[in-house]
Amino acid sequence: AAAARVHEGATPSPGRSRPAVVKIHPVVVASIVDSYERRNEGASRVIGTLLGTIDKHSVEVTNCFSVPHNESEDEVAVDMEFAKNMYELHRKVSPSEVIIGWYATGYDITEHSVLIHEYYSREAQNPIHLTVDTALQSGKMSVRAYLSAPMGVPGKTVGVMFTPLSVKYVYYDTECIGIELLQKTRTSPSRTNGLTSDLTQVAGSAAQTQEMLSTVLAYIEDVLAGKVTADNSVGRYLMDLVDKVPMIPAEDFETMLNSNINDLLMVTYLTNLTQTQIALNEKLVIM
Amino acid sequence: MASRKESGVSSSNTLDSPVKQIQIEGLVVLKIIKHYQEEGQGSEVVQGVLLGLVVEDRLEITNCFPFPQHTEEDADFDEVQYQMEMMRSLRHVNIDHLHVGWYQSTFYGSFVSRALLDSQFSYQHAIEESVVLIYDPIKTAQGSLSLKAYRLTPKLMEICKEKDFSAEGLKKAAVGYENMFEEVPIVIKNSHLISVLLWELEEKSTVPSKHELLSLSSSSHLEKSLQMLMDRVDDMSQDIVKFNTFSRNTSKQQQQKHQYIQRRQQENTQRQSRGEPPLPEEDISKMFKPPQPPPRMDTLLIAGQINTYCQTVKEFTSQNLGKLFMAEALQGHNS
């Protein structure tokens, strides 16, 4: 049965709402890439289960684990026992996650995928299939999601069609920050990055803001010199930006600033005092 | 101000332990963040196991898995079994199955506790290079990833082995609250494919990178930290009171013993002068049982905790001072 990729025109089965958007957390894709890197010799791709939550219009993928499988020209074997076990173990940690589909690395959907998809249809209602192109066949690592729909002439040749879904990346706030830190490793030659501390971080953020401001300034200069046509919406954003700096009379600002600085200095002094005290206490007690 | 070393836990460059640096994969960082985010709301700590391998003097952490929380209904939940099964399954998919440590989330930086000490000791005893990763989600939400790796110093390990937590034991090993834990520097490393993924994410993601780090309104965080610091200091002062009563009791007892011996001697000399046999020597130590010295370990832990709080607060204030000066510069241009 050929697996054609056509936009969804099939009538949805009654009673089942078909999600239109797949929201993925980056940790899932990172996990998939990692399992791909650790695959057995001779295996060209890895598969695994996707866990997450479903709501009316979208599916959110929050976790995954890889499942050992063997694939050859004419047959495919998946260790289903393993999959069940792993799911049970994962459920103990996060009871709200359910099996929502499966993933495979690689660019195409093969015939074996259809079989595996069938297996997963028994585990979940409307399993989604995710492909992560780790071998970079399409030139970049594309992540695509599909839903299966039956197609064909009823009663005669019936096949399965995979319809694509749109993929969105979602982050928790802390994930955002984690990813930002990881992004820094792209630029260093050894792909490493240490964790910075206090003032250096503020300096880094300030440098970033400065960079952004200089880009904006360069754009403004270009507009003024007539090199680039002015864009009204950008102009409105710029006005918002400038307005954001609050206009406070100088003395009020001075008093606010000073009181804040005093607070912080007092706290620093008290903490130093506490530290000295416990040091003293230790000396006295151990004596 | 006291001219002590700024770092509360000794992060000297001459660590005499087998692990000098920790290398973490980006995947582990993401997984820890996710675990806390999903399961750790409130002030519950979330814990998990770190897997990886040891390369020369580096500890590489390549994967991790979370531990379910202790719930009341799972009274007979077998942690060991869960761990065994997880590791076995992970071995099937070629994930490193060497246990190299564990991670824990912390609430405003409070992690120095007896439980942590015990756990880390058992880990380090079994596997020499293990570490505990402390992840502070609240500080991370403020703008920068707060992940620290700690090990017990060899001196502390010895004490734990002997289980000798009395004052003499601690003095012998010269363990102060500053050399309880040693911090190991962390480096994040990503493989090439993950770098490709990161490029892809940067392109695709429509989420603007929030600059929480530069926000000025963070006094609530400071308040909370100070509150916890005050609680700990209260604990500490209670402990000090206990110790004071103990030392007062001991000295009183010494005095009593002294008086008793003197009286005895007097009586004996009197009796001798009268020609009677001296009174038998009684066992003094049985009569005056010395009071129980208070355990020193708790004080040490409290001191260590207070120290960590102070460190975090100081980091925080220095950041804020920087931000305030930046705000001043910004205003200066306008006014």
Automatic annotation (TrEMBL), chain A:
Pfam families hit by this protein: JAB, MitMem_reg
MF terms (GO), sorted A to Z: deubiquitinase activity; metallopeptidase activity; translation initiation factor activity; translation initiation factor binding
CDD domains xref list: MPN_eIF3f (cd08064)
Cytoplasm recorded as keyword: yes
Subcellular location: Cytoplasm
Gene Ontology cellular component list: eukaryotic 43S preinitiation complex; eukaryotic 48S preinitiation complex; eukaryotic translation initiation factor 3 complex, eIF3m
Every MPN domain range: 22-152
Keyword Transmembrane (UniProt): no
Main subcellular localisation: cytoplasm
UniProt cross-references to PROSITE patterns, sorted A to Z: MPN
Keywords: Cytoplasm, Initiation factor, Protein biosynthesis
Membrane-spanning parts: none
One GO-annotated biological process of the protein: formation of cytoplasmic translation initiation complex
Record-stated family: Belongs to the eIF-3 subunit F family.
Function as written in the Swiss-Prot or TrEMBL entry: Component of the eukaryotic translation initiation factor 3 (eIF-3) complex, which is involved in protein synthesis of a specialized repertoire of mRNAs and, together with other initiation factors, stimulates binding of mRNA and methionyl-tRNAi to the 40S ribosome. The eIF-3 complex specifically targets and initiates translation of a subset of mRNAs involved in cell proliferation.
Subunit (UniProt): Component of the eukaryotic translation initiation factor 3 (eIF-3) complex, which is composed of 13 subunits: EIF3A, EIF3B, EIF3C, EIF3D, EIF3E, EIF3F, EIF3G, EIF3H, EIF3I, EIF3J, EIF3K, EIF3L and EIF3M.
Protein name from the UniProt record: Eukaryotic translation initiation factor 3 subunit F
Phylogenetic classification of the source organism: Eukaryota, Metazoa, Chordata, Craniata, Vertebrata
From TrEMBL, chain B:
Domain MPN: 22-156
HAMAP family per record: eIF3h
Location of region: Disordered: 246-295
Database matches in CDD domains: MPN_eIF3h (cd08065)
Family: Belongs to the eIF-3 subunit H family.
UniProt source species: Denticeps clupeoides
InterPro entries cross-referenced by the UniProt entry: eIF3h, eIF3h_C, JAMM/MPN+_dom, JAMM_MPN+_peptidase_M67A, MPN
Function text: Component of the eukaryotic translation initiation factor 3 (eIF-3) complex, which is required for several steps in the initiation of protein synthesis. The eIF-3 complex associates with the 40S ribosome and facilitates the recruitment of eIF-1, eIF-1A, eIF-2:GTP:methionyl-tRNAi and eIF-5 to form the 43S pre-initiation complex (43S PIC). The eIF-3 complex stimulates mRNA recruitment to the 43S PIC and scanning of the mRNA for AUG recognition. Component of the eukaryotic translation initiation factor 3 (eIF-3) complex, which is involved in protein synthesis of a specialized repertoire of mRNAs and, together with other initiation factors, stimulates binding of mRNA and methionyl-tRNAi to the 40S ribosome. The eIF-3 complex specifically targets and initiates translation of a subset of mRNAs involved in cell proliferation.
Main location: cytoplasm
Keywords associated with the record: Cytoplasm, Initiation factor, Protein biosynthesis
Name the UniProt record assigns to this protein: Eukaryotic translation initiation factor 3 subunit H
Subunit structure: Component of the eukaryotic translation initiation factor 3 (eIF-3) complex, which is composed of 13 subunits: EIF3A, EIF3B, EIF3C, EIF3D, EIF3E, EIF3F, EIF3G, EIF3H, EIF3I, EIF3J, EIF3K, EIF3L and EIF3M.
GO biological process: formation of cytoplasmic translation initiation complex
GO MF: metallopeptidase activity; translation initiation factor activity
Compartments in which it is found: Cytoplasm
One term under GO cellular component: eukaryotic 43S preinitiation complex
Biased composition (Low complexity): 252-263
